[in-house]
Specification:
By secondary structure, this protein is an all-alpha fold. About 80% of the residues lie in helices and about 0% in strands.
């Protein structure tokens, strides 16, 4: 084999190896690190009960609890440290658990908006039938009484005590189902 043929074979071998190597730009590495820091910030904003529902090891929990206590520049450095810890872990289960917590919060907000709408319709019309259709165990007489009182309070510009009571009653009905 001539030196030129050896050089061509060597270059061909190098080209084949280049296809297997995935190049990651410096900007992409920085974007990934920033995403991990944002995840760390979200984790530090959780309560202890919420944090317990996320699959984390002991040093991550310790680092997050420490970040919750720290202020200003130390907090920023601790967030960077949390991001560094997250680089060495599989963040998929952590992200899924965090999304599940957020979704539960969104579902609860949607339920409260629905209950507020039912309450407002009841106060306006005095008709308890839509509520009775959704919650057959509801006390129709109590709902009508609260609706009359709430409408009178609203007309007299008084605090909406009865409207709050209707909302709480509807909330207990949803919890009992």
């Amino acid at each position: 084999m001539t030196p030129f043929e050896q050089e061509d074979a060597l270059l061909q071998n190098i080209d084949d190896n280049d296809e297997e190597i995935i190049y990651v730009s410096k900007s992409e590495i920085k974007r990934d690190a920033e995403a991990l820091k944002k995840l760390g910030v979200e984790l530090t904003q959780l309560s202890k009960n919420e944090l317990a529902k996320i699959p984390l090891d002991e040093d991550m929990i310790y680092a997050i609890e420490l970040a919750q206590k720290i202020k200003k520049e130390g907090y920023r450095r601790q967030i960077q440290y949390i991001g560094k810890l997250l680089r060495n872990r599989n963040i998929e289960p952590i992200s899924q658990a965090l999304d599940k917590l957020k979704n539960r919060h969104n579902q609860q907000n949607a339920l409260f908006h629905k209950l507020e709408q039912l309450r407002d319709d009841l106060i306006e019309s005095g008709n308890a039938e839509p509520i009775m259709a959704l919650y057959p165990l509801a006390d129709r007489q109590q709902l009508r009484q609260l609706a009359r009182t709430a409408k009178k309070e609203r007309d007299d510009n008084k605090p909406p005590k009865s409207a709050r009571q209707i909302f709480q009653y509807l909330k207990t009905l949803t919890e009992n189902e």
